[in-house]
Specification:
Number of helices: 7
Largest sheet: 2 strands, antiparallel
Shape: globular
Radius of gyration: 17 Å
Number of strands: 2
Distance between the termini: 29 Å
Structural class: mainly alpha
Number of domains: 2
Length: 168
């Protein structure tokens, strides 16, 4: 099935859209990092204002997510497979186990539901993601395919899993 792009954004328009919605994006992604902050707390932290309900860890994670978005926005070419690991290391402040495919289950609390993403196949996932990112598919098709693969491509935030070799 083909999924044509409904919108064509220029790089500048895309950057503006991200910047305008940055606090909401960071807040939403923060839920995958188990942040307990509110959207208001997130906005305060991004504006360097006090957020009394935020823990130091929450503040550090929000700032790291902000840096990761700034890194992604600054890229002049589309993100590629190794960039995902760089972003994960940035978000997790270069924790020794960050930037690696996870080999253990994690539980992500989203609202009142708990989601247990499937484990990735360390032999096939890297090549599958590279194939998606370098294909001639529309951006919409790539996003849908990446989301499917991404559900199993969760990076580790702690623990000792090993990184599979990056395909050349």
């Amino acid at each position: 099935m083909s999924f044509p792009n409904k919108f064509q954004l220029t790089a500048i328009t895309e950057q503006n859209l991200i910047q305008q919605n940055l606090a909401q994006l960071i807040y939403t992604i923060g839920k995958f990092e188990n942040l307990s902050t509110s959207l208001t707390d997130t906005i305060c932290i991004l504006n360097n204002e006090p957020a009394p309900d935020a823990t130091p860890t929450d503040i550090t994670t929000i700032i790291s997510l902000h840096h990761a978005f700034q890194y992604a926005i600054a890229q002049k070419s589309p993100l590629i497979y190794p960039d995902i690991f760089v972003l994960n290391q940035s978000i997790n402040n270069s924790h020794p186990s960050s930037g690696q495919l996870r080999t253990d289950d994690v539980t992500v609390a989203l609202t009142n539901d708990v989601w247990l993403p499937p484990l990735s196949d360390p032999q096939n996932t890297p090549q599958e993601l590279i194939n998606i990112l370098t294909s001639s598919a529309t951006a919409t098709e790539k996003a849908l395919s990446t989301s499917r693969v991404g559900n199993s491509l969760w990076m580790v935030t702690n623990g000792p899993p090993s990184l599979p070799p990056t395909p050349s």
